[in-house]
Design brief:
Length: 177
């Protein structure tokens, strides 16, 4: 963008989740979109009414419910249809974890090439769930959130390590969503 151009960069958030974003030079459109959002317009109609805005499948699912957002993320990671590099080495673990209801109740997310889990859908994420690190030999290192090693295993064994570690989480947190 040059010094002679104006552009308004918009971001729409709900309870800590990024719902939509976009850029435009039209101040009237900015005001109308912001007014609609603050008046409670859903993200789908918002992005339809103002095509310079875009949203994500996760945001659409989150707007319906936290449970749908978690399910969306699991399906997204399991399919990895975009070929996300950070998911490629995690895919064998994710495939095994996909069938585990206790894990499917948690939000999976990646950071620094590792797989994390959270009891909460929006930041701040939980800091008490195990972390899964893919190793070059196809195994997975499972650690506590603070880095203490719980073990190395193949995908099925890695899932078992995570489930065991989750069993050590206080019951009050095991029921949060």
């Amino acid at each position: 963008m040059g010094a002679q151009e104006r552009v308004f960069c918009l971001q729409f958030w709900a309870r800590g989740v990024h719902m939509a974003h976009g850029n435009t030079d039209d101040l009237a459109a900015v005001a109308a979109a912001m007014h609609a959002w603050q008046s409670g317009m859903a993200v789908g109609p918002l992005t339809s009414a103002w095509p310079f805005l875009s949203t994500s499948g996760f945001a659409m699912a989150y707007e319906r419910s936290e449970g749908e957002a978690i399910d969306y993320r699991w399906r997204q990671y399991h399919a990895n249809s975009s070929g996300a590099v950070q998911l490629t080495r995690l895919h064998p673990f994710i495939s095994h974890a996909f069938g585990e209801p206790r894990l499917r109740a948690l939000l999976p997310y990646t950071s620094h090439w590792t797989l994390h889990f959270s009891w909460t859908v929006s930041p701040p994420y939980s800091d008490d769930c195990p972390v899964v690190v893919p190793l070059s030999d196809g195994r997975f290192l499972v650690t506590t959130a603070d880095g203490r090693e719980l073990g190395m295993a193949d995908p099925a064994g890695g899932v078992a390590l995570v489930l065991t570690a989750l069993g050590e989480v206080p019951a009050a947190q095991a029921h949060r969503t």
